[in-house]
Design a protein that fits this description.
Chain B: It comes from Deinococcus rhizophilus. The structure holds 2 protein chains of 2 kinds. Chain A is of the alpha+beta class. In chain A, about 25% of the residues lie in helices and about 30% in strands. The longest helix of chain A has 16 residues, at about 245-260. Chain A is globular and about 55 Å long. Chain B has 3 domains: about 20-25 and about 485-630, Aldehyde Oxidoreductase, domain 4 (2-Layer Sandwich); about 30-135 and about 200-250 and about 255-290, Alpha-Beta Complex (Aldehyde Oxidoreductase, domain 3), CATH 3.90.1170; about 295-465 and about 635-785, Aldehyde oxidase/xanthine dehydrogenase, molybdopterin binding domain (Aldehyde Oxidoreductase, domain 4, 2-Layer Sandwich). Chain B has a 7-stranded mixed sheet with strand order 3-5-1-12-9-10-11, with helices on both faces. A 5-stranded mixed sheet of chain B has the order 7-15-14-13-8, with helices on both faces. The chains are: A alpha+beta, B alpha+beta. At the A-B interface, α9 of A face α4 and α20 of B.
């Protein structure tokens, strides 16, 4: 009702989706729609045509392949929440509410690269891999190269994020989040993971233009030191009337300390 | 009262209306579809203040489905008058409020033009494309900024942006009281602006019949007769019986659906001009910039006490931001619904308040749940707490020694009101017991140094509701009466319809009003239905706001019911061949005292009233009665609310941990509905204290236009509430009831604010911060206070 007019297409397979995208560069991929549709209703986004991949069964579900879980991009937050994945169920619990979690997808969220989303911090700390298919075939992108900028991921034009490969076992993990009072998105969120080999990786989301690793925190924790302060530079962070860059930097420190205490 | 028993009054009956609401079977304005209906979409100003230099209708007239584009010129050419103000103050400056802007827009969201099309989607698309040229003008958003020398002028005909200056109380007496003060404290407070956010956005659907000249308007209204009166007599200039206003199921109002809005005028006019029904339904993002907003005061408050801690006087100076236009009750809210309540529950020898009403380039401000009384309660209870802290007195005890005493009612305050009845101390004691207040204070001490701080906020409130004696409000400037009507229609089978001028949009009238009637008539509640919200069916009515439905509408119903039972008794006595004095109405029948078996049922009487085969000589047939009830005074509910918050000193996050309250609204008609009102009210007030903020930047750009920015409380933000009641009847209405619809909101902003400030006072001697207590604000305050050496027991 409220969005501008748009055409709607539904793909019946990944192959068909890729073919349709190759033919029509105006197509905007829609998964669960929980980021795109609100933007369209406010007419902040006015895509001329949508390509719906939500129903693609080949992209849904979680299977184990040796020491990794392979998660289909159209797996819903609710499915993630009930899964045996490391860390992600705890993070999925922080996403929206039950209605959002029953419709929104892990792949949709990660490909959207919302700087306030919860998953990217977990993806970086776990060191997941993203399987992306395009006209030229399939490629695998490490988490550290996935989140390029604000609402900008490594998934390119004409490409589709199909799967996420997540290490099956870690020694410990935690996600600490400070919510925006209205949107409940992260003003700041910190994920800390102690991997099978003992190495600790950590990342933050919400506070800056994109989710990033926390090298200083990792260095300290791997050296057996406390998380401490000054983990991120406020000059690189976002600010709004709920949370200034200085406050967000402080929150990253606080949340890092709390997450580190749990792994 | 002597010959009947209360079977239904006081029972926590489940609401009759709920099955249709929870199964999605309610009929809201947007659910109605009329043949050939067109859809209107509003083109709204993106500017806070601008001159409209051109509107190119041709930019959209050829778009699919478009029937018409209406501008301010078209509205003026149709002879449509500006929307009037319903409450006048001396020397009030009223800028014209047109249905569609005429040459100038004055707030973001002001209506610039209207597009009418076959479908809503077509109307929205065309509205988004309409070419409008603006010349931006200087703009101002904050009330105090609008008063500064050289501030942008919102309207040429409101010099200095001052719509009114108003004062109440004896200033000389106040100055004298301050002269003998042992101690005074002064607090600057901002009671920030709120968006009402009723769950159903506003909507209107209009139809015009050229054959009869009659209009029909479905609209989301708390008071359909007020809409009919204003629209017919002031805006459209038609006889009011030519306009029928139906306000069907309405999903909440909180005050925002009292007022006459531009869109209702627009759909009526468009329906006449185009010869087809026209509907408009707000998008949520339109609600944010077009529903009248609430609060927005900047105040200075000064309290004086003597050496024993007895309050001597309160001095208040308030700037009330009215927004871009003066709407229906706007002048009354920051004056007669605010200044008159600044006495609170205390024995003040003197109170004096000055209020300056200011226009700005923001959405208009009018009554929002509590309307003036939350602002008064917040101010009084906040400054009382600051004083208690300064004196080193327990806030509860400081209140107790200053309460008006039960034998002093009716109590004349220094600010005009006469409180009808009250007994404040038992409510305070019950609330303190309920929350185990001494244990909380001990816990507060224990938590020092843990990284968490506990705050306990105690407030005692009184409010004035049940609006109101018509002659009194008339003297004060109301352009309306404030009585209420009721019609009781008994059908031949003894089934009963109640008609009321009150309107239910969440209050549960369809259950509570039949509870009153079932006891009075002594018949099963299933035999009674309430009809409301249709000017074509009710006698007249002033609607629902100011917690007036039970006290005024319920009293009107009670009087009408008494007429019914009086007539029924006459008929029964006649049928029983007994004298009226020998007949009693008890246990559901009319019976001859001392003669068991000699009785007639309500059905027998109702049937005979209609058959009229055997009626007392001279008695009219039928069984129907109308009452018009004008209250003798406001009613004055009161109580004590206690909020407990836990603050995380690392992040500044405030968690509302416990909440308990004791309210006195007189006798409870339906405790379940009362409970619901209290719960909702507390949530709304806590929302203001902790999260909600209708923020503008200095130029009037609205910063909180979606729920992504505007934080309403959610279930998981709130604790379970503990509630209790004392019962002090109002002496002047036939039900003894007071009001409960707004008490929660009136009390809880202040209670939660006091809890947060109690924590910050105990931790680091911060006397006052303004709401909302967002985490960064609290974190900075703690950090800065500790940096200045004010912190006790630094915990990090």
């Amino acid at each position: 009702m409220y969005p501008a007019n748009f055409d709607y297409h539904r793909a019946s397979s990944v192959q068909e989706a890729l073919a349709m995208m190759a033919e029509n560069p105006d197509l905007k991929v829609i998964a669960g729609g929980h980021s795109l549709l609100p933007a369209m209703r406010l007419r902040l986004a006015q895509p001329p045509a949508l390509l719906d991949v939500f129903g693609l069964e080949e992209l849904r579900g979680i299977r184990r392949e040796g020491d990794v879980f392979v998660v289909g991009a159209m797996t819903t937050h609710a499915q993630v929440l009930r899964s045996e994945l490391p860390l992600f169920p705890e993070v999925a619990h922080e996403v929206g509410d039950p209605m959002v979690r029953n419709r929104g997808t892990i792949g949709g969220s990660l490909a959207h690269a919302d700087p306030s989303a919860d998953y990217p911090a977990a993806a970086l700390a776990l060191g997941v891999e993203f399987v992306i298919r395009g006209p030229g075939g399939e490629r695998t992108v490490p988490a550290d190269e996935m989140f390029v900028g604000m609402f900008e991921s490594a998934v390119g034009l004409g490409e589709l994020l199909t799967h996420i490969r997540i290490p099956a076992s870690v020694r410990g993990s935690a996600y600490e989040k400070f919510k925006h009072p209205a949107s409940h998105y992260a003003i700041a969120g910190v994920a800390v993971v102690r991997h099978a080999d003992g190495e600790i990786r950590a990342a933050y989301t919400g506070a800056g233009e994109r989710a990033e690793r926390l090298p200083l925190l990792e260095e300290r924790l791997n050296a057996g030191q406390p998380a401490g302060e000054g983990l991120v530079d406020a000059a690189n962070l976002l600010g709004d009337r709920f949370a200034s860059p200085e406050y967000r930097a402080h929150l990253v420190d606080v949340l890092a300390g709390r997450a580190a205490a749990r792994v | 009262m002597t010959d009947r028993t209360d079977k239904y009054m006081g029972q926590a009956l489940k609401r009759k209306e709920d099955p249709r609401f929870i199964t999605g079977a309610g009929q809201y304005t947007d659910d109605f579809v009329l043949h050939g209906m067109l859809h209107a979409a509003m083109v709204r100003s993106p500017y806070a203040h601008a001159r409209i230099t051109g509107i190119d209708k041709s930019s959209v007239e050829d778009m699919p489905g478009v029937h018409a584009v209406l501008t301010g010129e078209d509205v003026a050419a149709a002879g449509t008058g500006p929307i009037p103000v319903g409450w006048l103050l001396p020397e009030l400056k009223v800028p014209p409020h047109h249905a569609v802007a005429q040459g100038e827009v004055n707030h973001v969201g002001d209506i610039v033009a209207v597009v009418v099309a076959d479908t809503r989607a077509q109307a929205e698309d065309a509205a988004a494309m309409l070419a409008v040229d603006y010349e931006a003008l200087p703009s101002v958003a904050l009330g105090s900024a609008a008063l500064e020398d050289g501030a942008p002028q919102v309207h040429d005909d409101v010099p200095g942006n001052v719509a009114f200056r108003w004062e109440i109380g004896d200033e000389a007496a106040l100055n004298e009281a301050f002269g003998r003060a042992h101690k005074t404290v002064k607090v600057n407070l901002r009671n920030h602006r709120l968006v009402p956010n009723a769950i159903e956005p506003r909507a209107s659907l209009a139809q015009f019949s050229p054959a009869s000249g009659e209009y029909l308007l479905y609209t989301t209204s708390q008071n359909p007769h007020i809409h009919r009166l204003i629209l017919a007599a002031f805006v459209l200039n038609i006889p009011e019986h030519k306009l029928r206003v139906i306000s069907p199921d309405v999903g909440g109002g909180f005050g925002s659906k009292i007022f006459q809005y531009q869109e209702e005028v627009i759909v009526l006019l468009a329906a006449r001009l185009l010869g087809k029904p026209v509907k408009w339904a707000a998008r949520r993002s339109e609600s944010f910039v077009s529903d009248m907003q609430g609060r927005d005061h900047e105040s200075e408050a000064e309290l004086a006490v003597d050496a024993e801690g007895r309050m001597l006087g309160l001095r208040v100076n308030t700037v009330a931001n009215l927004g871009a236009y003066l709407t229906l009750f706007a002048p009354a809210v920051p004056t007669y619904l605010y200044g008159t309540l600044l006495n609170g529950v205390y024995k003040f020898p003197a109170v004096h308040a000055k209020v300056t009403g200011v226009v700005t380039n923001t959405v208009p401000v009018d009554a929002y749940r509590g309307a003036g009384r939350p602002e008064a309660t917040y101010l009084v209870e906040r400054v009382v707490d600051v004083m208690a802290h300064e004196l080193g007195m327990d806030p509860a005890e400081f209140r107790r020694i200053n309460f008006i005493q039960p034998d002093e009612f009716p109590y004349q305050t220094p600010v005009a009101l006469v409180y009808d009845s009250g007994n404040y101390e038992p409510a305070l004691d019950m609330a303190l017991d309920m929350m185990k207040y001494p244990d909380l204070r001990a816990e507060q001490e224990r938590m020092k140094g843990t990284g968490k701080i506990l705050g306990i906020g105690v407030i005692s409130y009184v409010e004035a509701c049940g609006l109101a004696p018509s002659a009194l409000v008339g003297q004060l400037g109301a352009q309306a009466g404030q009585w209420e009507s009721s019609l009781v229609r008994v059908h031949p089978t003894g089934k009963v319809e109640l008609y009321t001028g009150s309107h239910s949009h969440g209050q549960g009238h369809e259950t509570a009003f039949p509870q009153i009637a079932a006891d009075e008539l002594q018949i099963p509640i299933e035999d009674i239905d309430l009809i409301h919200g249709d000017t074509g069916r009710m006698p007249y009515g002033w609607g629902t706001y100011g917690s007036r439905s039970a006290a005024v509408g319920g009293s009107a119903l009670k009087v009408a019911l008494q007429k019914i039972t009086a007539k029924a008794k006459k008929i029964a006595a006649h049928l029983l061949e007994a004298s009226e004095e020998d007949v009693e109405h008890a246990e559901g029948v009319f019976r001859v005292k001392g003669a068991p078996g000699q009785q007639k049922t309500f059905f027998d009487v109702a049937l005979m009233a209609h058959l009229a085969h055997n009626l007392p000589e001279g008695l009219e047939p039928g069984l129907e009665a109308t009452a018009f009830y004008d209250p003798k005074n406001f009613v004055y509910p009161f109580g004590t609310h206690i909020a407990v918050v836990e603050i995380d000193t690392d992040t500044g996050h405030v968690k509302l941990r416990n909440y308990g309250c004791v309210d006195d609204c007189g006798p409870l008609i339906n405790p379940l509905i009362v409970e619901g009102q209290v719960h909702g009210g507390i949530a709304q007030g806590a929302g203001q204290a902790l999260w909600e903020d209708a923020a503008y930047d200095d130029e009037g750009n609205f910063l909180a236009g979606t729920f992504m920015e505007y934080a309403v409380p959610r279930a998981d933000d709130l604790p379970s509430f503990e509630t209790g009641h004392t019962v002090t009847p109002s002496p002047h209405n036939p039900l003894g009831v007071k009001g409960i619809g707004e008490s929660g909101t009136i009390a809880s902003s202040a209670a939660v604010a006091n809890a947060v400030m109690d924590a910050l006072w105990h931790e680091c001697r911060i006397p006052h911060l303004d709401m909302p207590y967002t985490s960064e604000k609290v974190w900075r305050a703690i950090r800065d206070a500790r940096g200045a050496g004010l912190g006790q027991a630094a915990d990090d």
